[in-house]
Design brief:
The structure is a single chain. Helices cover 53% and strands 10% of the residues.
Length: 318
């Protein structure tokens, strides 16, 4: 019976654009290889946000341990710094239990931070400045913050979408430390990972992916996305809360406020999710340490599972 080679600091990463089937693949590989999942998803981490985040259900987990899923309140601060700290703790716990750690999700920024063991100590925490920036975003819109970033760190502004307020704020906070986040990120790319990682990125034919995205959005609405958003708003959450800025939530909030219809919200979610998937694919394609896995090259999901399981056993087991 082969065993995990713990001396390698083994890690399997299953990443890729939304709706490519990462969770199902990871669960089945974990069942075959005695693994456990650390979620690298910036939305599935929140309580009470199961529908809009397409959070994996207990039934879909099939008994495989999942970490950082349904983990914090939507009111709690959650960012890449906290993710990395928590993910390292989870990794050590999984390995100590004799299981193989799987890092699974589509938030590439989180995966990079964990894989390269990113050092965040250079960035000072400044709650007052963070609140000031959040206030600007609230009063003047996210574009105002993005213009501030463009003025101090143009390279970072090119890579961070204006609507990603959380990352724009982090980049502006970083600039106050005397170093630009773009420079920091370039240095981090040169870091050697402490993990022996197999980094698989799932892809598929573009039209097929878009059809899957649109079907998923329809399932969300059928499952009660609007009621989920209403319930969250009744607790006092709104579109300015980080947790509510995720795809699906902000569009439904705007529809409930009367800016457009719920039918238009549904179509906007589909369009913006397609754009998001395209950005995710660009992110992962530009990583040098990834192996692109096109699902269309395999006849069945089982064939893909068998192929990857064989690769993992060959490299991470003794």
């Amino acid at each position: 019976m082969s065993e995990i080679n713990t001396s390698l600091k083994p890690l399997v990463i299953i990443a890729g654009p939304t709706a490519t089937g990462k969770s199902d693949l990871a669960v089945n590989l974990c069942l075959a290889l005695d693994g456990a999942v650390i979620s690298a998803d910036s939305m599935q981490v929140y309580h009470d946000m199961a529908i809009g985040s397409a959070r994996i259900t207990p039934e879909e987990m099939k008994g495989v341990p999942h970490y950082l899923v349904d983990y914090v309140s939507p009111r709690e601060p959650w960012n890449v710094v906290r993710f990395k700290t928590e993910a390292v703790r989870c990794y050590n716990e999984i390995l100590a239990a004799g299981r193989l750690p799987f890092l699974v999700g589509g938030t590439g920024f989180y995966i990079d931070a964990f894989l390269k063991d990113t050092d965040f100590t250079a960035m000072d925490e400044d709650e007052d400045y963070r609140e000031e920036l959040s206030g600007i975003a609230l009063r003047e819109g996210p574009e105002a913050l993005h213009r501030m970033l463009l003025a101090v760190d143009p390279r970072a502004a090119e890579t961070i979408h204006p609507n990603n307020v959380k990352r724009v704020i982090r980049a502006l906070e970083f600039s106050r430390s005397g170093k630009l986040i773009s420079e920091h990120n370039m240095e981090e790319k040169k870091r050697v990972s402490p993990y022996h990682a197999l980094y698989f990125v799932l892809t598929m034919e573009r039209d097929r992916l878009y059809r899957r995205i649109e079907a998923r959005v329809d399932r969300m609405f059928d499952a009660g996305l609007v009621d989920e958003v209403k319930a969250l708003m009744e607790t006092g959450l709104n579109e300015n809360d980080v947790s509510m800025q995720g795809l699906g939530y902000r569009q439904v909030i705007r529809a409930l406020k009367g800016e457009f219809s719920l039918d238009e919200a549904r179509e906007r979610i589909k369009t913006e999710t397609r754009h998001f998937a395209k950005r995710q694919l660009t992110w992962f394609t530009n990583r040098q340490d990834t192996e692109m896995i096109c699902l269309d090259d395999y006849g069945t999901a089982k064939a893909l599972e068998n192929a990857l399981a064989a690769r993992i056993r060959a490299e991470l087991f003794i």
